[in-house]
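Exercise 7. Predict the joint structure of the components listed below.
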Amino acid sequence: MENALYVVATPIGNLGDISLRALETLRAADLVACEDTRHARHLLDHHGIKAQTLALHQHNENEAAEKLLRLLGDGKRIAMISDAGTPGVSDPGARAVAAVRAAGFRVIPLPGPNAAIAAMSAAGLADERFLFVGFLPAKVGARRTAIGELAGVQAALVFYEAPHRVAETIADLAATLEPQREIVIARELTKMFEQIEKLPLAEASAWLAADPNRSRGEFVLVVSGPPPREGLDVESDRVLAALLAELPVKQAAKLAAEITGQPKNALYARALALKDENV
Ligand code: SAM
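Solution:
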């Protein structure tokens, strides 16, 4: 194993969800940098790994990174883990990685558990794209603004949420986004009380309120992408926008109608609107 920083994904609940390579790396590392040493010890003990640990969390990441650089300079092999899932994804790690890379050392990722990807894999949404948003702002006003800014994004949206805020966040999503969008509420993934529920956004608050257990634990919320604009599908819109960048409105609408088979009038009206948006 070479002198490098190994960024190791660890389980998000089920301790069995750790790769063979992750175990080998944690076993062979000279030091394991971790968010919470007691939490890390639980995982390491479970797998009989007696590694030395160093705390690296959001409040000491810069100083801890300095220590890592000194150790890497001494030829050591360091593994970095967070409390759960993939370091650097809504977790500390990015600043340490940046410092290590800037100092010219290798950073080697060991992929594995991640709550967002686990939720996406079981969501079964039709969207081809998704945007990982992570945690929304805790304050009501900022949260609603943030949701409003995401409303037009042509992709499914993936959020992390804490149990004490999940009801508020779902209510804000339902109030701001189109009610026919679907939400997948993925709770306690990989754990004993795992629950994955897919329902229209408009029904989500009532579903959550129907049983207090549904608000317990850790959450990923996935919201399907926006419904197609009335009269025009997303692809026609894309073609039209591309033509409009090069051609006058009338010509762009005519060509778009030929390419997409959509009605020329609708495309012309949409082209005028797009032009206004870009003025
Ligand atoms: N680094 C982690 C990852 O790769 O997914 C995320 C860490 S972030 C501090 C913690 C949040 O991730 C939780 O509040 C929750 O939104 C989500 N999360 C983590 N574990 C989860 C699980 N087992 N089920 C559902 N959501 C989970």
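Discussion. The longest helix spans residues 264-278.
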